[in-house]
Amino acid sequence: MITATKAKIAPGKLLIDGQWVEGAKTFDTVNPATGEVLTQVTEASASDVDRAVEAARRAFDGKSGWRKMPASERGRLIWRLADLIAQHIDELAELETLDNGKPIFESRNVDMPMVIDVLRYYAGWATKIHGETVNTFDNAFTYTLREPVGVVGLIIPWNFPLLLASWKLGPALACGNTILMKPAEQTPLSTLRMGELAVEAGIPVGVLNIVTGGPETGKAIVQHAGIDKIAFTGSTAVGKEIMRGAADTLKRVTLELGGKSPNIVFADSDIDGAVRGAINGIFYGKGEVCNAGSRLFVESKIQDEFLEKLVGRAKKMAPGDPLDPKTRMGAIVSQEQMQTVLGYIEAGKSEGAKLIAGGNRVTVDGGKGFFVEPTVFGGVSNDMKIAQEEIFGPVLATLKFDDVDEVVELANRNQYGLAAAVWTNDVKKAHQVSRQLHAGTVWINTYGLMDAALPFGGYKSSGFGRELGAAALEHYTETKTVWMNIG
Ligand code: NAD
Fold this sequence. Notes:
By secondary structure, this protein is of the alpha/beta class. The protein has helices at 46-61, 71-87, 89-100, 104-125, 161-174, 189-201, 215-223, 236-247, 271-283, 303-316, 335-350, 385-388, 404-412, 427-436, 471-474, and strands at 14-16, 19-21, 25-31, 36-43, 133-134, 140-148, 151-155, 178-182, 208-210, 229-233, 252-256, 262-265, 295-299, 354-357, 361-362, 371-372, 375-378, 395-401, 416-417, 419-423, 441-444, 459-460, 463-464, 477-485.
């Protein structure tokens, strides 16, 4: 049985200027494990966005504006929000799983703890953002100030809804910016609940505005003259639109986009560890993970043994009820995304790749959910669609190679550059290959680890700018140089 939820889900309203308000239109948000509507959520119009921008501007510039608040107080409020999220962790995890279809194991044990960690990390930064004094001339006193950028538009995708919201919210708040946040239309619920907790935490009115909606709401944010910066996570196609849309108002833009990350296994690696890493790299989060290890390169001499072990494990990962704590493969986020994934599986077959595990939609508990088997293709060549394009689902393309130069060349021959992994017990080789890979993150003998303190972001079509770590603060501050004549 798909477990019935205990959570009572109210219709979603907009959070503007500290008030929960309704708009003219609503849209449905659906539980992908059952195909049933969870609730209706307000679609923010351009005029709702206008009101949210005015509120954010007042909260930024006003006499007791967010930017003027003592930094320690800003940090305390961010920490308080993290505490409230910790107190409501089960409820938030359940909302995330209901809306996204990800296993409750992931929402409860990975996503939500990291949300709390990220907010606490940036709460600590609030008091440590500063400029520097610089020695220039004897008759001058010269220094720099780090100032918040202003009103920022944060646009979030559906795969890690609250987690990716926290990656932007933490540094934006710590630096003194005020916010319009737009969660993805598929998964707005956890962000709306977090908005209630932000109000309860005492984050001042207008500092965080939540404007739910789809692409039209997103475009209104991107084009709005009153917004100073856009931080976007999502697909590369939309990222390009956002750059174009932001050009007329010369907004600062940071983009965290798609990926097709190579996971490279050398014959001298710990093979069982690498098999586990490959499974985790592609099937964690149903493969709806920007840094999914979706291209697996295995050195020819261990290929047969490796694929046999890999396929054995993949076949055991049957999709199940996302609310069951034992489930490790949940539901694809939407019917549309499931059709995209199944379309890529068909493309793989018609291009001549060999389907060696999965490949089908499956029914869980006789329901109407959107479940796809963990799927593995063998015999893939690097120019096939399934090796080049981001599928964003549980589909692994496996390729083989014979030497280091060949695999580095193949791995880099792709438009994306978000992440990569190398499995080998040869320390020199591990570091040499890591240096040659065009990727924002390289894992050695592991896959997918993240920490609030370490920057994350892409090379090439995977975007630019870095989130997490001190690096993110760069994107939420302007640097002002001050000269004073003391001669
Ligand atoms: P998407 O690009 O379709 O949508 C992302 C967000 O942008 C949503 O909130 C959506 O409503 C909004 N949007 C859509 N069109 C818009 C427009 N024209 N103007 C303004 N906003 C618009 O992406 P998605 O399908 O939600 O997410 C999947 C994609 O996100 C994948 O490509 C994945 O790789 C990428 N992603 C990247 C990272 C990263 O850190 N690099 C992390 C997670 C996801």
